[in-house]
Design brief:
- The protein is mainly α and 107 residues long.
- The chain has a single domain, classed as Orthogonal Bundle (Helix Hairpins), CATH 1.10.287.
- It is 77% helix and 0% strand.
- Helix 3 runs antiparallel to helix 4.
- It is globular.
- The N and C termini lie far apart (42 Å).
- 12% of the residues are buried.
- The mean pLDDT is 93.
């Protein structure tokens, strides 16, 4: 089985390639065509569905909804010209920093 990072890297490549696809032939391309706000709405919907799966104490649904959430978040990042590497860089900067301190340092 492919590693987690391999799967995410492959998905990023696919999402990048779908930017130029026909919106009638590609769900991802149709999201890009609808713009950042629609993609952000999908991220929000998937986040709520993930939270509902947690409330229902259903690990299978948590996994499925988390996959949907991560997928749509990656679509949003790609739409904005960002990547998981950008997010990982931010996380690396926070490594070893107390969450309380990090939150207090936000402007």
């Amino acid at each position: 089985m492919a590693s987690t990072m391999d799967i995410l890297a492959k998905l990023e490549t696919t999402l990048r390639e779908r930017k130029g696809a026909d919106p009638g032939d590609s769900y991802v391309s149709s999201l890009y065509a609808k713009g950042d706000r629609k993609i952000a709405q999908k991220v929000g919907e998937e986040a709520v569905e993930t939270a509902m799966a947690v409330a229902a104490d259903d690990n299978g649904e948590i996994i499925k909804e988390s996959a949907d959430l991560l997928f749509h978040l990656m679509v949003l990042l790609e739409a904005r010209g960002l990547s998981l590497a950008d997010v990982a860089s931010e996380l690396a900067q926070r490594e070893g920093l107390s969450g309380i301190t990090e939150k207090a340092n936000r402007t």
